[in-house]
Design goal:
303 residues, UDP-N-acetylmuramoyl-L-alanine:D-glutamate ligase, seven-stranded parallel β-sheet, EC 2.7.1.144, transferase, PfkB_dom, 1-phosphofructokinase activity, ATP-binding
Length: 303
Amino acid sequence: MIYTVTLNPSIDYIVEVEDVKLGGLNRMRRDLKLPGGKGINVSRVLKQLGAENTAIGFLGGFTGRFIDDKLREDSIRTDFVTVRGDTRINIKLKHGDETEINGLGPDISPEEADGLLHKLSALHEDDIVILSGSIPPSLGGDFYERLIGACRQAGAEFVIDTTGEALMKALVHKPLLVKPNHHELAELFGVELHTREEIAAYGRKLLEAGAKNVLISMAGEGALLITADKVYHATAPKGTVKNSVGAGDSMIAGFVGTYVLNSDPLEAFRTGVASGSATAFSDDLAVRSLIEQLLPQVKISEC
Ligand SMILES: Nc1ncnc2c1ncn2[C@@H]1O[C@H](COP(=O)(O)OP(=O)(O)OP(=O)(O)O)[C@@H](O)[C@H]1O
Ligand SMILES: O=P(O)(O)OC[C@@]1(O)O[C@H](CO)[C@@H](O)[C@@H]1O
């Protein structure tokens, strides 16, 4: 079974306005409320691809109930720890460009945190856990390490999509996959990366530090896959970008959802890129029909 972990889920409140007038009254042209948070997005796209999975993490209040209901409506299994505070609302403002205002999220008590650790300790060897997104401040910066410890003790594989120190500290535990975008990779090492060769060289450092597969996403420029012995580039399909929120999460879902079927990293890479692009070309997250339609446009070459 695949589990996605979202420590700080959100209702993504997508608001479209003609133009933003700071200090004035702005009226919405369109709005949309979606269950969000990186792991939850991964769960939704995995489900599109036919990969059964369970979404876990922390949910609370009326916002938490909205998210749980929406996931269940889509027949996604949920097993969240209920917390006292309200799950956050993240604003995604579309005004020609995309401006995001992400909430802080509720405080998580030590007892609530232990509840999640307990769920992970009960996993099995053939489980894969996808840890995605930021850590709420009340949990402490080392919370992913504690979760990874619990996964590893249970014998489960894990994938981690986070940034900075939390990502660096996870590598030694040999994640099945990490997926920074090229800006996050540059920030991780405090460098500027311009060419594909430079990006691949720094991506390789994540592999050397322990990751089994490294995906570096580069938005419309496609992505790099770095495996133990090779580096591949995939082109991104061409289309009209409607929404880039969740493109990276969709890519992880496409990769993991395919990799679990046949352990073929190249097929997984192709579906990952098509899934990311399918989300970029949609108002909501990718649906299966569009992912399948885009697959032939993804051209993979060895670098
Ligand atoms: N403009 C685009 N055109 C085509 N495909 C895109 C575009 N933007 C994103 N994608 C697809 O989605 C994948 C992931 O995108 P990106 O590199 O923006 O990830 P990310 O920064 O983690 O995304 P986010 O944080 O917004 O979810 C890309 O590798 C590509 O396949
Ligand atoms: O605040 P975090 O956890 O870093 O990111 C949360 C978030 O921006 O990421 C998802 C897109 O990847 C959205 O659904 C959600 O609002």
